[in-house]
Amino acid sequence: MSTTSDRKIRLLIVEDDADDVALLVRTLEQGGLGIDWKAVDSAVGLTEQLAGTEWDLVIADHSMPGFSGTEALRMIRDGGHDMPFLFLSGTIGEELAVAAMKTGAQDYIMKGNLGRLIPAIERELRDAEVRRERARLAEQLVQARKMEAIGRLAGGIAHDFNNLLGVIMGYAGLIADGMEPGDPNRECADEILRASEHGAALTGQLLSFSRRQALKLRVVELNAVIVDMGRLLRRVIREDIELSLHLAPDAGFVRADMGRLQQVVMNLVINARDAMPNGGKLRIETALVEDPSAPLGTRAGLSVSDTGVGMSPEVRSHIFEPFFTTKEQGRGTGLGLATVYGIVEECEGKIIVDTEPGRGTTFRILLASVPSEPRAVAMAAVAEPIPDGTGETILLVEDDPSLLDMLSAALESRGYRVLAAANLADAENHAKDAATIDLLVTDMVLPGAGGDLVASRLRARRPDLRVLTMSGHAVDHQNGRARHLQKPFTISTLASTVRSILDA
Fold first, then answer.
1. In angstroms, rounded to a whole number, what is the distance separating the alpha carbons of residues 495 and 504?
2. Which pLDDT score, from 0 to 100, does residue 335 have?
3. DSSP states of 329-353 as a string?
């Protein structure tokens, strides 16, 4: 550390003699140290100063009327403060000095030997910075391990959770398919399907965030993202929050992962909701923003504003750190804004925060505009029905009993004959006994086996067997002759996929 610094040292002096305080300050300033200092001579005064300022250094006399440097040291260490503490005394003996250092003081200097003072200060400030850096690195390691644990947890629960969502989506689809056109309950079934699909998207996004998987980029219209989420957003906020959308017609198109972009909006809306415990106004706005640094000279801007409690500069500086949260225990994981930041960074975008305590917060996201892709020829208002099966035999392998029952019922309702198996052994027994198997539909994660092994064993008997795999995990590679469905999926998606494979 140099004896000159752009930042003054914040020095707390524990001393009752005004002349000694003046001598100490003069010695430090003449030695080239810039200091901001305060002097106290009592426990009350020390408590007040420790509560109001983060001090870089404490220099204390050993003996004072009604107070002592030893008591000051104990108060500082018991309070969790780690700043260097130096004794500067004319009366402390060697035995007392050694005892003081054992209780947490860094050094002791006799008032008659002030030549040692500045070198001791510089040394201790350097050592303090090293300790702080080590603490920061240790905290980063802890956070990295937390993130790794979150990734493992996400991977562990994704399969089972997606199976549950698959059951919900499947039976909701079956209920919807059995309703007559115009049935008032059809909207309820559709809402269940939409909510389940959103839950599935969130699960996939958590996996993507924790595993750093590549984005599935495509050109999307920014306004369409917001409009598509409109009903869901109103479900998320409370009735005492007024939601308004201000979507510029020329907001444009961006290249982004649709699911993750929706997650950004959802996380910001939830954050805004929680910042308005007594209600308020939530505004979502899109606009085309000029930016010479962007490829087309413009950026598609998305902002989410609230009239909530706002943030202090200290809180603002930490909001994108994983696991940082100001919410009470049990109400926030600290991953929401960290996820937002990570997604925007991966999309090569910018995020700007405008906030002030008591005056709300605005998050502005800027993504590079891209030309719109040619639109496909408009489809008919009513999608063409998916042809039913004509008695084809499907071997279905799934270890989750509820999902196995639901998928079997769904396929049978579509006119297929289903052989249900919970594991590899069951599947091989069906393969031995069945006269024909037109399609194998298998989960990729099974007890003691995987979908690839099931397919290879059955293809040893039936070389031309067609295969459809499914999984709640991300699939990095699969059998080249197999199609794949990512769980959870709707019954219509399953039916159309099965039909396309059988008709190919």
1. 14
2. 63
3. TTS--S-HHHHHHHHHHHTT-EEEE
**Widest Cα–Cα separation across the chain:** 105
Looking at residue 46, what is its pLDDT?
A: 92
Per-residue pLDDT tens for 184-200?
888 888 888 888 877 77
Residue 91: burial class (beta carbons within 10 Å; 0-12, 13-18, 19+): exposed
**Contact call for residues 215 and 346 (beta carbons, < 8 A):** yes
Same domain flag for 271 and 363:
yes
In a domain, 162, yes or no: no
What's the confidence (pLDDT) of residue 323? 61
Q: Which two tokens stand for residue 460?
A: 């040893």
Domain of residue 261: give its range.
Answer: 215-370
Distance of CA 343 to the CA centre of its chain: 9
- pLDDT at residue 206 greater than cutoff 60: no
What pTM was estimated for this model as a whole? Answer: 0.47
CATH classification at residue 246? 3.30.565.10
User: Which residues neighbour 332 within 8 Å (Cβ) at sequence distance 6 or greater?
Assistant: 274, 325, 326
Do 404 and 442 form a contact (C-beta atoms < 8 A)?
A: no
- Whether the CB-CB separation of 387 and 499 falls below 8 Å is answered with yes
Q: H or E segment at 271? A: helix 258-274
Residue 147: exposure state from Cβ atoms within 10 A (0-12, 13-18, ≥19): middle
| Same structural domain, 339 and 468 | no
The pLDDT mean for the chain works out to 82
Cβ neighbours of residue 191 under 8 Å, at least 6 residues apart? Answer: none
Say how far apart CA 104 and CA 126 lie, in whole Å: 17
Q: Which helix (H) or strand (E) segment is 355 a member of? A: strand 350-355
Strand stretches in 111-169, DSSP E: none
How would you classify the pairing of strands 445-446 and 449-450?
Answer: antiparallel
DSSP 425-466: HHHHHHHHH-S---EEEEESEETTEEHHHHHHHHHHH-TT--
